[in-house]
């Protein structure tokens, strides 16, 4: 719901210079901690809605029913939040400066790879708090106004909105890209009822004939340029999927226990990616370089204590163990790996036990169905 008050009620005797306000918003956003900001219209091009409809029709959203249940509201911001006239899109870099190189971790089968965006504090909270501060700063100039902040938390086509506002272009992996910063950043939006001047989109994309992200995807989830089948995407399988991970895909996941950065790791534009300066995104609990065995030993209490306030906490201990069991099934065979898996054979969760049994079979180790 809009924080709707008196529309654009500027302080008495004060006429609003909307161009100056737009300039001030960019400055305030930078001061607050955003790395880039742009203002776009609340009307997306027809191609955005058509693309979304085709993607949903293919079933590429998998079990993410929320992607479909809002209908055209996802592609029509002014219907999603009535009264919306302009959308302020923001970008914030997240790559932790001290994190071990992702490709190095992925190449070590006994280590656990966690997507770099999830190594620190939950980004939803960080960006939402900053967007609220930006709204309050604007309010000091315009008085009470209608606004609503979004951070990957509602049916918002954030990449389309950011592209339209000129923050970057959609890469073939479907993420937003920039020549100056690559793609290691979060996006957020502030829907407003303010008649701000809009920024122009970029004149062109810069992916060219490059297809490295497509060929690098471990599960072949990028089925065509700009089109991802979430049902095959490791980020979906390890984060969004609540049930069992399809067996044919398990060996392809490798040691990626939460998310996947492969398409970003090979992108040439990420040579220019800039590390985050936000302490919130610093590595917690050594998750940039930790063994699968160590993580698998965490009790539910340890999981909750260590990961509270992070994005990982949202999936819960059960799915965390499910993911790590798959990683252990793909790890080099050794006594520590076998012992770790066997320690969870009597776990109360059917989901965990099934993945543990699968993992042990990969090592030709004893399971309840294959006694010595």
From TrEMBL:
Keyword set, alphabetical order: 4Fe-4S, Cobalamin, Cobalt, Cytoplasm, Iron, Iron-sulfur, Metal-binding, Oxidoreductase, Queuosine biosynthesis, tRNA processing
Enzyme class: oxidoreductase
Binding-site residues, [4Fe-4S] cluster 2: 217, 233, 260, 263
Cofactor note: Binds 2 [4Fe-4S] clusters per monomer.
Active site (record annotation): 152
Major localisation: cytoplasm
UniProt-annotated location(s): Cytoplasm
Pathways involved: tRNA modification; tRNA-queuosine biosynthesis
E.C. number: 1.17.99.6
Catalytic activity: epoxyqueuosine(34) in tRNA + AH2 = queuosine(34) in tRNA + A + H2O
Ranges where the 4Fe-4S ferredoxin-type domain occurs: 198-227
Residues making up the signal peptide according to the UniProt record: none
RNA-binding recorded as keyword: no
PROSITE patterns (UniProt xref): 4FE4S_FER_1, 4FE4S_FER_2
GO MF annotation, one: epoxyqueuosine reductase activity
PANTHER family per record: EPOXYQUEUOSINE REDUCTASE (PTHR30002:SF4)
HAMAP family per the UniProt record, alphabetical: QueG
Protein name: Epoxyqueuosine reductase
Protein's organism: Parachitinimonas caeni
């Amino acid at each position: 719901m809009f924080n709707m008050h008196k529309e654009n009620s500027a302080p008495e005797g004060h006429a609003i210079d909307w161009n100056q306000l737009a300039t001030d918003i960019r400055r305030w956003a930078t001061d607050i901690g955003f790395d880039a900001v742009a203002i776009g219209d609340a009307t997306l091009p027809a191609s955005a809605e058509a693309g979304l409809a085709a993607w949903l029709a293919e079933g590429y959203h998998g079990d993410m029913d929320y992607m479909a249940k809002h209908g055209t509201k996802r592609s029509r911001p002014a219907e999603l939040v009535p009264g919306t006239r302009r959308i302020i899109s923001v970008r914030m870099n997240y790559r932790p400066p001290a994190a071990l190189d992702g490709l190095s971790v992925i190449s070590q089968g006994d280590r656990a790879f966690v997507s770099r965006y999830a190594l620190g504090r939950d980004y939803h909270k960080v960006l939402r708090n900053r967007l609220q501060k930006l709204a309050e700063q604007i309010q000091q100039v315009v008085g009470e106004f209608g606004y609503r902040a979004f951070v990957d938390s509602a049916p918002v086509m954030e990449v389309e909105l950011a592209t339209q506002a000129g923050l970057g272009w959609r890469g073939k992996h479907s993420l937003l890209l920039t020549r100056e910063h690559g793609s290691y950043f979060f996006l957020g939006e502030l829907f407003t009822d303010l008649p701000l001047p809009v920024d122009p989109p970029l004149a062109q994309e810069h992916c060219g004939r490059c297809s490295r992200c497509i060929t690098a995807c471990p599960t072949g989830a990028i089925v065509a340029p700009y089109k991802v089948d979430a049902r095959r995407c490791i980020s979906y399988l390890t984060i969004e999927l609540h049930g069992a991970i399809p067996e044919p895909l398990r060996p392809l996941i490798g040691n990626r226990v939460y998310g996947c950065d492969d398409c970003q790791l090979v992108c040439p534009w990420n040579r220019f990616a800039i590390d985050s300066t936000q302490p919130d995104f610093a590595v917690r609990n050594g998750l940039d370089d930790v063994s699968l065995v160590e993580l698998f030993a965490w009790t539910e209490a340890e999981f909750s204590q260590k990961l509270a306030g992070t994005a990982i906490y949202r999936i819960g201990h059960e799915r965390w163990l499910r993911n790590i069991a798959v990683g252990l099934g793909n790890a080099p065979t050794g006594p520590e790996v076998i012992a770790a898996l066997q320690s969870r054979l009597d776990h109360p969760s059917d989901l965990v036990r099934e993945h543990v049994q699968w993992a042990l079979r990969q090592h030709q180790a004893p399971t309840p169905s294959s006694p010595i």
